[in-house]
Amino acid sequence: MFDTLVPYQYNEQDRRGQLHRVPLMTLSIGVVTNQHRRFAHPAQVSELATEMKSYAKTQAGSVFVVDRRHDPEPGETGRGE
User: Fold this and answer.
1) pLDDT by 10-residue block (mean), the chain, 81 residues
2) Which residues are 31's β-sheet partners?
3) Beta partners for 22?
C-alpha cells in the first residue's frame, strides 16, 4: 500500500523542470517482540530493533522484517552440541 502512494508525494515543483534520477522513498520496519526472548533492559530492545531495521534496509522496496530468533533453552549452549 505504501509503495502505491509514494508517487503522490512528489509534485511538479520537485522536478524543477529537469529530470533527476533519485530513488523513490521506501518504508523499512524492523519488528522485535518478547514472544521468544527475554529482555533485561529496554536498551536491548532498542538495539535489536535497530539491527532489524538495518537488515530491512538491505531489502528492495518497502518491507518489514521480524526477528524470529529464540533465546536458548535452559541447558542449551547454542554451539550445536
Assistant:
1) 76 65 83 92 94 94 92 70 47
2) 66
3) none
